[in-house]
Fold this sequence. Notes:
Number of helices: 6
Amino acid sequence: LAVIACVGSLLGWQFTIATTAKTASDEGMFPAVFSKMNAMGAPVTGMIVLGVVQTGLAFSTISPTLNEQFSALVNLSVVTNVIPYIMALSALAVMMKTAGVPQAKYRMNLFVSTIGMLYSAYAIYSSGMEAVFGGMIAMMLAFIIWAFISPRFISVAAKKGGAA
């Protein structure tokens, strides 16, 4: 049962990350290679690139036992996935105020998002120091990459007629 759950999770992650990379590429945030689709409409090239990156990550966390390696990868993925989730939840209050959400709905959503952020903070804490350190390295690399690619968003926004 655990093997089936792991395979299902991994397949789901692959399709989610491939779709996210394709959307980011379509918006000019990722290289164009991630937007390429095969005849059946699947971003196979992007999935291969991401598979190579993930394989590199797997080798970088190599442990004496598969269980330790799996735990290290799961904990790292928790940290790297939960931080953007917390950031999105943090922005919810501003988005709701801007959208003019009724006060009762605003308070309920803020309450639920606060619980989500607290649980997420606990999940990060529970992942352990090594996973948090690895997640921080991933974030630092992401910010460095962002510094180089962010100027192109000004031109993308101008083409779409929006603000930068």
